[in-house]
Amino acid sequence: MRTAGCVPDLDSFCSVIGPLCDLRKTKKVQELTKEMVSKFKLSPRKEMVVKIIKAMRANKEVNETVEMISFLEEMNIEIGFESYELVVETCLEANLFILAGKVAIRMTNKGFIPHLKVRQKVFQGLADLGQLELAYILKNKFTELNS
At CA 60, angle to CA 127 and CA 43, rounded to 5? Predict the structure, then answer.
């Protein structure tokens, strides 16, 4: 950013990251997002996080979406419901039910509960894989949040 002659701020990062997401240049998006958060201590808007996750999902970059959410959580960036839901759905599309279950648990720890269809897919996938303990933990978390 500085080499381009602009002072890095949230708007300048968003004006670069947004079009890169549209072009699905997710490697560069990841680099810029990490630079924005860790180096410049800027917090991306929730809409921007959703856009980043959608671009990664379009490229079928499952592990990268989970890593991005983990990185943002570690940096104490507030992540919205839609971002978590997209990551869980991305995992489900790739039939990575254990990973989807782990993300769903992190989601519930933030007070969010996935939509019913997503919950059912995660639970059924875990049960089909024989991951009954994780399925049971998730079921309890969902029940706890519903009450």
Answer: 100
Task: Count CB atoms within 10 A of the CB of residue 27.
Answer: 12
Separation CA 12–CA 39 (nearest Å): 15
> What is the secondary structure of 5-39 as a DSSP string?
T----HHHHHHHHHHHHHTT-HHHHHHHHHIIIII
Alpha helices (runs of H) in 3-146, residue ranges in sequence order: 10-22, 26-34, 46-58, 62-74, 81-93, 97-109, 116-128, 132-146
Q: Where are the domains of the chain?
A: 1-79, 83-147
pTM of the predicted model as reported, rounded to 2 decimal places: 0.90
Question: What is the structure's pLDDT at 8?
Answer: 81
Structure-derived torsion over alpha carbons of residues 101, 104, 109, 110, reported in degrees to the nearest 10: 160
The per-residue pLDDT for range 37-82, each reduced to its tens digit, is: 999 999 999 999 999 999 999 999 999 999 999 999 999 999 999 9
pLDDT at 147: 58
Rg (C-alpha) for the chain, rounded Å, is 16
Enter the tokens of residue 59: 């490229």
